[in-house]
Amino acid sequence: MTGSDYYIPAVVLAIALAVKAPSFWRSWHSPMSNAIFVILAASAAGFVFGAPPTIERVNRFTGVPNVSALIVYCILSCLSCGSIVLLIHWRGGPEEILRKHTRTWIAATAVVIATFCVLFSLSSVPIEQQRDFDTFYANTPYVREMIVLYLTAHFAMSLVVATKCWRWARELRDLQAAWTHWGLLILVAAFGIGLSFALLKFLAVGARWAGTDRWDSLSTDIAPPLAGLGAGLTTIGFLVPVVGPRLGSMWEAWRAYRAMEPLWRALEPFAGPGKPTWIRLTSSPEIRAMARSTDISDRLLNLAPYLDSSRREAAERYASSQGCEPEAALIFAEATTIHAALATVEVAGKLPPGPVAIAAEMGATIDTRVSGTNGLARLSIQFAKIRHSGSSIGDAAHSEGK
User: Fold this and answer.
1) CA 200, CA 223: separation in Å to the nearest integer?
2) Would you list the domain boundaries of the chain?
3) 384 near 331, Cβ under 8 Å?
């Protein structure tokens, strides 16, 4: 892996960290928020300090050969701790138990990091190794123990988190927890890769202990890309349940906004004398959908004198006789009634009545159950189908429903 292979994901993670910075600041007292911050920051730092160009500069700046290896070990230990703490609070439970488990893992990580520092200070690693530190110094006193401790801790953490995520994912099968379910599955894959990383490193180090360097490529060529992929998937897995619901809401609102367009445009002559709703270019899909649904509701109010309640009842009976569910039959009836009313206005050449006329001769109104962005979106879709097929469906419904 070259420097760019490390720096590109580091920049992506740094951007995500910058975007989330305001929310981190507002919720600095939240253990989950702090854990997400540690995960993003440690992942970005791990890529930066694990890059060969950075290793060379850090070693030269500090004057301590291979101190970058110690820094990377400490950063990845913080990443592991943050992942476990986030998972603990993510799962939930009694506050006292959560705090106890959090303190235990933080204390254990602090002990591991302190042990790394002591072992590294006692060792002798004069020759700089930018890519194969683990295998080159696999038989060096104190460094050998540091490497074993690091790989053992990493393997144990990956196994624990992957197992917990898999068990929890199997419990979450309802639609409301879909984003959490997928996030957990991504974490299972991420920490499964972490297990592979540790195993490959162990194999390469074990081969050095056996007196051969033929397996060094497992540590220097195969394991690093796996570490990068695992770190990226870890970040994605923890962010999916946080960002996913928001993206899902935006997507549903955008679909409703687009689905309401046929009915919204067909009712444009009934917009009234007021100014149209003004939407900013930066407005969210939810605001756009709400504004469009408000416009449609206002225009349907102006169309009310031309709506035929008998046609609606006949259409609803027809739809029910065809096996439609009550809600679908209601949507069909309302769409048929609106289509017929617009056709009547077009044939008669009448102008939409003003507010006074509406107040004086209010006709049938749209059923209140067909409201909101989702209801009006379904109504618009059904209206577009009827308009596309011509008036035959509505006429048939009207004649058969009588």
Assistant:
1) 6
2) 3-244, 261-401
3) no
CA–CA separation, 330 and 316 (whole Å): 6
pLDDT tens-digit profile of 180-227? Answer: 888 889 989 988 998 999 999 999 999 999 989 889 888 888 888 887
Could you write out the three-class secondary structure of the chain? CCHHHHHHHHHHHHHHHHHHHHHHHHCCCCHHHHHHHHHHHHHHHHHHHHCHHHHHHHHHHHCCCCHHHHHHHHHHHHHHHHHHHHHHHHHCCCHHHHHHHHHHHHHHHHHHHHHHHHHHHHCCCCCCCCCCHHHHCCCCCCHHHHHHHHHHHHHHHHHHHHHHHHHHHHHCCCHHHHHHHHHHHHHHHHHHHHHHHHHHHHHHHHHHHCCCCCCHHHHHHHHHHHHHHHHHHHHHHHHHHHHHHHHHHHHHHHHHHHHCHHHHHHCHHHCCCCCCCCCCCCCCHHHHHHHHHHHHHHHHHHHHHHCCHHHHHHHHHHHHHCCCCHHHHHHHHHHHHHHHHHHHHHHHCCCCCCHHHHHHCCCCCCCCCCCHHHHHHHHHHHHHHHHHHCCHHHHHHHHHHC
C-alpha pair distances (Å), 100 with each of 70, 97, 163, 229, 348: 28, 5, 21, 31, 77
**Two tokens, residue 266:** 């067909």
Domain 3-244 fold: Rhopdopsin 7-helix transmembrane proteins (1.20.1070)
Answer yes or no: are the C-beta atoms of 301 and 327 closer than 8 Å: no
pTM of the model: 0.69
Which residue's structure tokens are 């979106």?
Answer: 377
Residue 96, pLDDT score? 87
Tell me which of 16 and 253 has the higher pLDDT: 253
